[in-house]
Amino acid sequence: MSASPSPSHGQINTDLLRPLLKTSWKFYAVVTILGGIVVTALVSWLSQMFYGFGISGIRWPVYWGFYVTSFVFWIGISHAGTLISAILRLVDAGWRRPVTRCAEVITVFALMIGAMFPIIHLGRPWLAFWLIPYPSERLIWPNFRSPLVWDFFAINTYLTGSLLFLLLPMIPDFAVVRDKSTGLRRRVYTLLALGWRGTPKQWHRLESAMAIMAIAIVPVAVSVHTIVSFDFSMAPVPMWQSTIFGPYFVAGAIFSGIAGLLIAMAILRRVLHLEQYLHPIHFENLGKLLLVMALLWGYFVFNERLVTYYGNEPSEMAVFWRTQRESFAPLYWTMVTGNFVLPLVIMGIKRFRTITGCVIASLGVVVGMWLERFLIIVPSLGHKYLPYSYGIYRPQPVEIIIAGATFAAMTLLYVLFVKIVPIISIWELKAGEHQPPDTTHPAAEERRLREQHS
Amino acid sequence: MPRWGMAVDLDRCDGCGACVTACHAENNISTVGADQASRGRAKHWIRVERYWEGEFPDVRLKFRPVMCQHCGNAPCEPVCPTYASHHTPDGLNAQVYNRCIGTRYCANACPYNVRFFDFFNPSWDKPLHLQLNPDVSLREVGVMEKCTFCVQRIKAATIQAKAEDRNIADGEIKPACAQACPAQALVFGDLDDPESAVSRLSRSSRGSKLLEDRGTKPAVTYLSRQS
């Protein structure tokens, strides 16, 4: 897999548990700064509730703006994880082992952040629970025909599924931490390890559960972003009613997810000194995936645009030209550069497919994908059918702060997670150097596992 | 069960704006001031759209009063997650303010942009707060509101007619806009009664629906200008 010698088991334990057991002042500094930004955003949201939604830039007729853009963006980023790691698990790609947990964590946190936005953008967020189909004495149910209700169910299903998918393979690692620590930490991890002893029976059950989850999570992930795309394609708005939106959104989601994962991996590698675990080959392989998704994204955009152009429907053409060469053109072409030109050039040429190259391309993709969602929402809403009701949208500080702070929130959650859970799955890393458990004799396997956990 | 509808004779409309003012007074629609209005926060349940045709000096000015079209196939209804926007048996597109959580999805789906969001709690400069209509509920911040065809007047007339054990006469109900229109460009009534004024006008060869090709089946018919 790589030229450098593989680290020994003891080395793996020491390296991967170091962030958990040793905390420097830098950790507190980073948490304070990021926490400060998140608190600022929270205050902004409270002030929006206190003073009224009018302090945002939302207006007639552009009733969705930065909040819904951020919603779609973060739900998109969440496809990094579970989907990529599930597919890599299903095809049994050996190189996935150090990558899967970084990816699954992104999924869970990005979903948590993304799922905040439908609530933040509500006019009366304190009534968000009306989306829950709870039995009430008045027999009032949510409207099951509404794509927003589908969203509610899809996101909750996905969040539950990806949490399970993240937590299952963490159990053996919690046991490692339990065995390596003392005092309060030991008691906490004893609880988290759920009585894990590493018997063949337990391993077998874990493997079965992981296999079931890996298969189940793929259709759930695909359905989630399809349903997010339905929020748009179910409404009679120019350039929204498109049959291509489902796959287009799913592809875009995986695309931005890979970009997010690459950035996270590069930062982890640098900050936690994981050079021996996250090799250039991981970045190169994911970079190739990024390249494939860039081509797929380009294909979808080409389709969407060309079909609209030939369809020549007047209201659609008005929006089309608005993004193609009028007021939104600078954003549009930035998006095309970030999402297509940049990854194609950097990831397409082998010499540039380095860690730095991957990060640059990924940053381009993250910016491009954010703009893509913005360009789907705002130009169409500001340019519906009656010329009298055309309008423009200018984001206000409250929206900019909240949308920007989500990146700080993501980083903060990640930093805290790395502090309590080994970010690389220790047992999977070790298992990767051995034959799969079911081909070895159970007794030998049990001894091996006992040894590696001692 | 009647099916309420309206006919708008564009030949008669001179764009005076009396309908807009009457609507604001009748329905307790708060004004937001010049600054907020310029930021797109004005709420006009009915508005007079102005369109200029031709090049100067051969310019023709056209007016079109636009209110909620009370679509028979309304795009705003299926997208609402809480049934705040729903259809009544008598053909009205109703909005239950207390059930609205403010996703604003209905306003996005509406091709006519006739749905308005309350960006702030309503307020009136003194002494205007004393002239509020007791029959119409106030809307708090964060909900959508829109033209109701003056449902409070429809209900009052329906109850009155039921008490007197008779049918509602044609022309008995007049929404505030129709009542205020000096040129009588707006005619309201029951579309299921073939003899009603609104039915006869809706059948006119001059009649057309706004954005008819969107398939929304509006209850409002516009009679085109002859001159």
Give a structural overview.
- The complex is a heterodimer of chains A (454) and B (227).
- Chain A is mostly helical and 454 residues long.
- Chain A has a domain at 14-133 and 147-282 and 397-453.
- Chain A is built from 17 helices and no strands.
- Residues 434-439 of chain A have low confidence and may be disordered.
- Chain B has 227 residues and is an alpha+beta fold.
- Chain B has a single domain (4-223), classed as 2-Layer Sandwich (Alpha-Beta Plaits).
- Chain B has helices at 18-26, 33-38, 76-79, 105-109, 151-163, 176-180, 197-202, and strands at residues 4-9, 47-53, 60-66, 85-87, 93-95, 115-117, 144-146, 186-190, 207-208, 220-223.
- Chain B has a four-stranded mixed beta sheet with strand order 8-1-10-9. In chain B, strands 2-3 form a two-stranded antiparallel sheet.
- Chain B starts with a strand and ends with a strand.
- The model of chain B has no long low-confidence stretch (mean pLDDT 94).
- The chains are: A mainly alpha (454), B alpha+beta (227).
- Chain A binds chain B through residues 51-54, 58-64, 118, 121-125, 127-128, 130-131, 140, 142-143, 145-149, 152, 231, 234-237, 381, 384-389, 391, and chain B through 36, 39-42, 47, 49-51, 66, 75, 78-83, 99-105, 107-109, 111-113, 116-121, 140-144, 210-211, 214, 216.
Describe the structure using short key phrases:
A: 454 residues, mainly alpha, B: 227 residues, alpha+beta, Alpha-Beta Plaits, two-stranded antiparallel sheet, 7 helices, globular
